[in-house]
Amino acid sequence: MATPEQQKFATQIDANQQALIARLAEAVAIPSVSGDARYRKACFDMADWLLASLTKLGAKGELRPLGKQNLEGQQIELPPVILADYGNDPKKKTILVYGHYDVQPALKSDGWEHEPFKLTFDEKSGRMYGRGSTDDKGPILGWINVIEAHQQVGVDLPVNLKICFEGMEESGSVGLDDLVEKEKDAFFKGIDAICISDNYWLGTKKPCLTHGLRGIQYFKLAINGPGADLHSGVFGGVVHEPMTDLFAIMSKLVTPQGKILIPGINELVAPLTDEEKKRYDVMEFQISDIDEATGSQTAISDEKQQVLMGRMRYPSLSLHGIEGAFSEPGTKTVIPSRVVGKFSVRLVPDMTPEKVVEVVEKYINEEWKKLGSKNTMRLDAEPGGKPWLADPNHYNYRAASKATETVYGVKPDLTREGGSIPVSLTFSEILGKNLLLLPMGRSNDGAHSINEKLDISNYIKGTQLLGLYLHEVANAA
Ligand code: BES
Ligand code: ZN
């Protein structure tokens, strides 16, 4: 049951819906793609826009520079982190909220129905389409909406907020770990609990709370051969071809059934306990949720438990792409001279990026030797992210569960997720506080895909949920 103050806040969010949607439209229009140097200025614009919104509401914040990075051979300035305080009443709890303002790349020509950086409405379904709508601009604006609505109805925010919005999450959160370490006894001091809204419901109907994420280790496997691209009529059958070498190695990493073939990887996985196994039974989920989210019927298994465990508690290896391969339409008869294969492993407890790099390097070196190729091979491991698992028997989760029941009228499922948010483990370890993932969007939102969307109802109710969570956590013990 909501208190009168909570009710006032929630009613204001409903009443102010149009303005909140306009705010999201403004944010989506700034193409803050962190992975492409051409959009770096937009990342800075997005950070300025957010800081201005927070400052206008009376938050005390700043943009923290993180130094430079090397992107596509260029040294460029990293997008800044926004650190802001809202309230500093020693009698109140202090909650750290985190989200990211950078987004995945998006081009209309990728197959989007509308311009990706223009929030577009489908009145009938109540959906708002646009890059970043669900991942993660809707959720970060949720926090701003919460502060604003409290002011509008004259209700005091029941906690102090520390706000951390970063602009490199989609590109591995470069520089953020160092900042957290540096600021642990300064900006991050005095935090009681942490809340991140950057994940999704398991399906499309029932909300959830998430207490685990997989980590990630990304690899680039470069094969260098001839000094230039060659004519396959003249040199086919004559030289060792880089792409053939690359396919030979990449085909030995994982089976079409998803089994990782690298010796030593599966042994790193924490064993499944009976108690954990039962959790997958009670989660509200059907194979059709996967079908809907993928727009296909391509799930590896038909068994609910298997599918859930494949996403939440086992590692996976995905092949992402090949730089340098001929990928245009037409039938160019080329032998590419250099190709770079990209793949990544999603990590679960007790895997660490270091151990995974070690076994992958050993295996690929052995397999490379077996090829007997005269080309050269180089394997690069990108900075990795460890998996994260939190204790859901904490007041932080009880508060979020209560708030979910008030807003949605159901008890949320307790899930783990397959994606990664690199800073989640950093926060938990360095700050030593409980962390909760409280999602706004649904499983079929299409994060990272074409036609990414957020349902208006998820944006509005999701904002109410963030606000009511703050009310519940303020008094929880
Ligand atoms: N919002 C996702 C994380 C996520 C994905 C949570 C799926 C729950 C389910 C986040 O923005 C993301 O995509 N992270 C990257 C991190 C990577 C670049 C280190 C990811 O998981 O690929
Ligand atoms: Zn995200």
Automatic annotation (TrEMBL):
Mn(2+) 2 binds at residues 100, 135, 198. The record marks 231 as: Important for catalytic activity. InterPro entries: ArgE/DapE_CS (IPR001261), CNDP/DUG1 (IPR017153), Cyt/Met_Dipeptidase (IPR051458), Peptidase_M20 (IPR002933), Peptidase_M20_dimer (IPR011650). The keyword Manganese applies. One of its GO terms (biological process) is proteolysis. Mn(2+) 1 binds at residues 135, 170, 448. It comes from the Eukaryota. One of its GO terms (molecular function) is metal ion binding. Gene3D superfamilies: 3.30.70.360, Zn peptidases. The active site is at residues 102, 169. Keywords: Hydrolase, Manganese, Metal-binding, Metalloprotease, Protease. PROSITE patterns: ARGE_DAPE_CPG2_2 (PS00759). Its cofactor is Mn(2+). CDD domains: M20_dipept_like_CNDP (cd05676). Binds 2 manganese ions per subunit. Residues 212-369 form the Peptidase M20 dimerisation domain. Substrate binds at residues 198, 231, 333, 346, 420, 448. Belongs to the peptidase M20A family. This is CNDP dipeptidase.
